[in-house]
Structure formats: structure tokens, C-alpha cells
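Narrative of activities, Objective 1.

The group set out to show that a structural description can be obtained from nothing but a protein's sequence at a throughput compatible with the screening campaign. Below is one input-output pair from the validation batch, recorded exactly as produced.
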Amino acid sequence: MVHLLRRLGSHWKRSLLDSLLFQISPATAASPSYQLLSFLKQCSNLKHLHQTHCFMLSRGLDQDKILLSRFIDACSSLGFSHYCLSIFTRHKNPPDIYLFNTIIKALSNSEFSILSIRIYNRILACGLRFDSYSLPFALKAVVRLLAIHVGRQIHSQAIGTGLVCDVHVVTALIQMYSSFGCISEARQLFDGACFRDVAFWNAMVAGYAKLGDVDNARHLFERMPERNVISWTAVISGYAQMDRPNEAISMFRRMQLEEVEPDEIAMLASLSACAQLGALELGEWIHNYIDKHGLSKIVPLNNALIDMYAKSGKIEKALQVFKNMKHKSIITWTSMIDGLASHGLGRETFEMFSCMERNRIKPNEITFMAILSACNHVGWVEMGRWFFKNMGTKYGIHPKIEHYGCMIDLLGRAGFLQEAQELVEGMPFEANAPIWGSLLAAARIHGDAELGERALQHLIKVEPHNSGNYTLLSNIYATQSKWNEAGIVRKVMRDTGVKKMPGGSCIEVNSEVHEFVADDKSHLQSERIYEVLWKINLQSKMDMHVQMEHVEMLESNKESGHILNSICA
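Output recorded for this entry:
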């Protein structure tokens, strides 16, 4: 049987081996090859792999390159790349192309990715030829190594060997060029291809989406002759990544209408969009879908649900999801801490942090952002100082500019303006717009025009067209009756062409999110909306008028009573 398999092409071997060895007959079940494959399916840790390896060696099965490849593949799937490498290097017989491809694939996305390229380069030296699997596996290592020059060399080899006509190779090249931001080269390959399958289209759509060019991704998506869940997910994720949650949710709803089952990534992206918009109804639908399809054990989905419920104002539901989770990651704890902090629940936030420490979960940078944010919400300056000081000394985390920003905002809001300015001057970073914005806001709260002027001078350099900064300083002057200075700020806005950004809001009705901007008439039902608004406004004025008349009548009666009393007296 083994001799027969060796005469066949390398990539037919695996399927034939499966079909031949997985027959449930007593003779087949008793064969060492079948037993080995059965053991590999049951391996879940390094000890199991060692035992299975001993079984292979004792029966000489390691000399069969197909079985050895299957073993290396099993090691790789469990994350033991070092063991894969050890087995391959100790193998005495010259590898065939199938064994080469297996080890290149195993190492391509590991800490040994550089070795996968070196092994790839040995293929020609061994008198073998690349096939349509060798190049895609090697290109994965190229992306991990950020070695585009190597990717270009592999592209040249694909042209030289004629493999550039293979759809799998071209798909891998498109993914590689897209990963490096070379979208024009990826598109050139896409446009020049004769044969296109759905994976090929997906690679180009995902390439655009990951680079933030969602409009081109959507344009290609609409042209696709056939789509799968990956196609939909690429566009939905692209919209969510670019802070275009309305389009992300719209695409998710369209996917539902076309009866495409969402995958984990599509649900994660959609939950992120729901969190941005507060689209609670759709978020709850996704939650029900997760429970119905037995996906509630997937930690990232639960993390996204916690974030969505917290940002949609349902902190109790977020806590319920958190408590029902058997396995919690640092992201789980941090999401819950952040949710509690954003709701102003300072005491509960610190209790959750203490609980996390008792569970021996080490906090990360984002955890401290949430903790400092909680201190900010509650106004606990001393607690904020303690955490900020102990980040490095106790937890080994050096504060980043975002942590400094949180601390400066906390001090500024609490009125410690001098300390906030000293922290800005002493931090190892150049202050950015959010930090100067915090100081400007603190100056507005506490009426410090001098600090406000200084902050605005810096903000004009980094974000000259942000109207909110000018408005804050103008308001500082106005509260101090410095009308001349307030007028000068408004004049500077006009002279430099800075326009005040209109306010906006959104509301979810019948699971659809509607977004509105001040003086906006682009909504399909804007005439009806303004008509209802006019009626509400008129009714409010009438009610106010009636109320005023009633008050005047009462005052008149009270006055008449006083007069009568004085007369009678």
C-alpha cells in the first residue's frame, strides 16, 4: 500500500491515505498506520505527542513520509513548533515535496518563521520543484517576518515556474501584497488573473478592507459572482474598523436577509458596531443567536457582549454575561472593569479589580486605563495617584501617553491645575491633542483663562479646525465677562474658516438605527419628522402659556387677598 501511495502525486497521498486507512474493518483497525492516525486525532498535549512518537518509532512508521507529515501537522496544530522542527531535522531520509510543504506550513506562523524560509530555499537544492502549496505557505512566513523583498523573490519564482497561473498562488500573493499595503500591486494581480474563485475575490476584498478602503471593498463585493460568509465578514469588519457602524449593521442585516450564517468574526464586528451606536435590539439578537447555536463558550464573543451591553447602558446584563463565563481572559476582566467605570460605579470597579487580582490575573495597560477612568468618573484623586504611581513599581507596567492623559484629566477636573501642568511638563512624551484638550476643559471648569490660552495655542497647531477648542476658550472669557476677548476668539474662528460642527444623535427604532444631525433634512421621513417636531414645539408653547396664565392668576388672587385683608383690618 505504501509503495502504491509513493508512486502517486504528493497531494493525492493524504486523501488516499485517509480513505484507505479509515475503513472500519477489523483488519484495517488493527493496522499500525490506522492506530497512529487514531492516536493523532486524540492528542491534546505534549505528553500525548511523545507517546504517539514512541509508537511511531517502535514500529518504523517514522520512515513513511506521509505518516511523518501527518505527525508534524498534529504537532503544529497544538502549537509545538519546536517539536515539529526537531522531528524534521532528525529525519534521516531525504524529504519529498509533501514533507517539505508540511514543515514550511508548520513553521510559517511561529517563532521559527525565518527557518521556514530557509527550508523553502532547500527545495530546489534537493532536486525537487515547488508546487502550488509551497509558495503560499512560504508567503505566510514572509508576512510574519515583514520581509516584502523575500515576497517579491517568491513572486518572481512563481512567474519562472509558471505557478503564477495557479489561483491559490495568486491568492496568496494578493494577501501578501495587501498585508504590506501594496494594494496597487495586489490589484494588478487580481485584474490579470484568468480564473477567479470565491477565495480569490475574498483576498482582494479583505485587502481593501484591512487598509481602510471600505468603499473599494464594497464595490468589489457587489461585483462578486458568488459570495460566502468570509466575503460578508470582510466588508462588515472593514466598516466597523473605520468607525462606520451604520454601514456595518446594514451589511449584517442584509446578510441575515440572504440567509447567510454569520461566523465568529462577523458577530464580533457587528457587536462592536452595536456598542458604538447603542443598537441594543440587534446586540440582543446576536446574543440569542450565540446561545441558540452553542457558541456561548467562545470567550471573545462574550467579551464583545460585555462591551456592547455596557456601552448600551445595560450594565446589569453585562455583569450577567460576565458571571456566566466559566473561562475569563484578561480582556474579559478589563472589559467588565471598563464597563463599570464608564457607568460611574467606582466602588464596584475597584472591587472587580481586587477580584481579578485574587484570581491571579495580571492587569495590563488597558486595565489601568479603565481604573484611572473610574477614578476620573468618581473624582477619587488620591486613588488615581496611587494606581498611577504603582503601575511601574508594583505591576511592572510603564505608563503610556494615554495613562498620562487620564491622570492629567483627573487632576484637571478636580482642580489640581498646577499639578496637572507639572505632569505634562515632566512626562517623557510630547503632549498630544487629548492632553491639551483636557487642560483646556479644566481651565473652562475652573475659570483659568491663562491656562486656557496656553492650551489653545498648542491645540491650534495639532488640530486647527476643531471648533470646540475655540468655543471652550470663548466661554471661559464669557464667564469672566471678558466680552472683548471672547469676541476676538470668535473673530479668529471666522477669519481662519473654522466652522462649528453641528451636533448629532442617533436612535434605534424597530432594530434600525437612525442618525440625525442639527438642521439635517437628508432622512427619508424628514418632512414628517419636522411636522411632528413643529406640533410638539407648538404644544409646548401653548402649555407654557397656559401655565404662565395660571401662575399670574394665582399671584393676582394672592395680591387681591392681601388687599382685602388690609382693608378689613
